[in-house]
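Escalation from tier 1.

The customer reports that the assembly of three entities below gives different structure tokens on two consecutive runs. Tier 1 could not reproduce it. I'm attaching the input and our single run for tier 2 to review.
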Amino acid sequence: MTEAHERTTDVAISGPTPSAATNLLSGLNAAQREAVEHIDGPLLIVAGPGSGKTRVIVHRIAYLVRVVGVSPSRICAVTFTNKAAREMRDRLGRLLGTQAERLTAGTFHALCAQILRRDGAAIGISKDFVIYDSDDQTSVLKRAFDAEQIDPKHFSPNAVHAAISRAKAKLIDVETYTAQAVAPYDRVVARVYARYQVMLAQSQAVDFDDLLFRAYVLFRDHPEVLEKYQSRYQHLLVDEFQDTNVAQYALARQLAGRQHNICAVGDPDQAIYSWRHADVRNILSFQRDFPGAKVVRLETNYRSTPYVIQAAAGVIAANTQRIEKDLVPHKTGGVPVVITEAYNEEEEAHWVVREADRLRRDEGFRYGDCAVLYRVNAQSRAFEEACLRYGLPYRLVGAVRFYQRKEVKDLVSYLRLAMNPQDEVSLARVLNVPPRGIGQKSADDLVRWARELGVSTVEAVHRVANLSPQPSPRYGERERTAPLSADLTPSPSPYYGEGERGGDAIPITRIARVPLARFSELVRALADAVTTVSALEVLDLALERTGYKEFLLKAEEGGEERWDNVQELRALAAEFAEMPPPEGLVAFLERVALVSDTDNLDEAKDGLTLITLHQAKGLEFRAVFLTGLEEGLLPHIRSMDDPQQLEEERRLCYVGITRAEERLYLTRAFRRHTAGGSMAGMPSRFLKDIPVTALTHPSTLQKTTVPEPRMTRRERERAASLTPGPSPLNVERGGAARPAAPDKPALRPGDHVRHAKFGEGVVVSFQPSGSDHEVTVAFAEGGVKRLLYSMAPLERV
DNA sequence: ATGTTTATTATTTTT
DNA sequence: TAATAAACAT
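Tier 1 run:
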């Protein structure tokens, strides 16, 4: 590559910079430079939080391209989320321009889907295979239990599912599993596993785990295919390496080939997905499997203040199974970490929301600079309610996932069915949606009949439809028919057999024939459309022919909103309109299956972010509220009896703390509503590992003291009863309870008010609530709202 | 085929 | 407790 060419493609160079190399290395510290400049052979980057990891990755790729002369199309970067892949490409685009588009960047799953789509035929995978998500998996599993006559009350389907998933993540196939299964429980799992795989094959489906497993098998059994990819990708990069599983690591090794140009980036202290079979030991294996690997440690933290770093270091240092790693703060100054206790989760939420509002008002923060982190999704509720009450905007991440919504799944199922009518899960889902007179009874009969004939369910649908060339106009009329088996040639089913054979003939006359005939027509029409029109048009055809819009809007419960979701899906489908008929739909379905909701976090909107600790990985915020620091919640009760899991909880806490750039608040509730009652929880053990020096600041009134975890529950109760006064809400704001907003006159029911956001309304009630007043207002538009008097932007009209 | 009652079960969830 | 699924009755 010539110097002149580099100049023209590099948007980052604008001055008289001597060369691409100097330019790409400037502004990097010594360790970062070392990582960027390493070209040949294995490289392991151990990158602490906020150490400029992404910057190093992006610069290293740019360096390979611009200085070493590697074509971007010969570099493969594997990330853990689609969002991370997109970010990487975007940032690379700023260094390389349009060239960056030729880089392969994606998740392991997306990459494997692509490989299997292209070369899966070698191991018997159809080009039209469908990807089953966890809901789909559950429904297959249910049928597998049924077929194996295993009582789901006896063996938890969830546990069996987890066992199968774990096996796949460890590259254990059905045969091996069966051979190893000795204990009665394992034998049950083995049976279900076998049946489950057969059912997936029958539907031409693969699940998430299969994407990895099958790609591995393809490479293992077909060296010529592997060779193709090995020679294409000269350089391989794996991000978030600490959270890869055995299958993913095996794939990485296969792809790295003999050249061993593999760069793994990770941080063992941030390994938080072992429950999804990630194995931190991959980091240790890396150095064994790639002897002579260069190891670079990035330990300078550019994100957080020294106070935050101190707190983080204190927490993580208590882990025993750990490679010591220092975090050196680059920033100076800052504000101490605040620890606070609220009486219950409601007050915890109020306190947090108020403080976030104060940061915005007094300290130049935006709501979007603040995030509330919690261990379990259930905690989000209190914060959501508090935000609503204060009229504070918020962004709730990943609560109801877009692609899990009923309406979206329904329509996606129609598209999948259009593409691949063998897809049993999708067929079962849409058979009677919207209701078309095919009830549970008819559906069951249909499926039983299909089994008996050894054909797929769609095939059975078509056959039923053909039974009556001129469908009787009156549905439900029972007529005698000629024996069905005569022209239907039953054949022994490879999947269902024995038990069902020789039983009574299925009373096919009772099957809702007319609706089935119409459904058969619909499936045919959709299947035809697949090859002739775009994904969007297929979707619109499905919408039109099913009357889905009317169905949604009629089914009241938030029909409008659900229709909006459909529109959103249409918008996504429109993005694939350019592609020729079958590929567009395939690509669309793949995107739907492999894209997570976190990707759609709307960063444009200003609002307090409510997010789980797991989802917060990789993000950063100026102010972080790490909530629910109680024994049983963080660490979670289900992790408390296992030292390994306990260490993971600690890492989770560490991840949370290190999201903070400037402000860190650690909150807990003395009492919390949990399953069936209210429990007083002890302060989290992690709190006592936070050095006092991170908490104290001479000029701050630190009302809350460092927690005393050794106090018994009784003592706590007593202590609480002795101080019934001000809630922590007021503690920070002057120490004593004070009447809320004394400058405002009280409101009375019947008063007319105007709210900044909700418009005009009438006061319904005005009642004291703690140190404040709760105002209930009926707004002309926007319904009845409960607001906190001191907070709500209300004025009397 | 639909609404009503009872039963069940409740970590995290990048794909 | 509370949310949802399955079973049940209408």
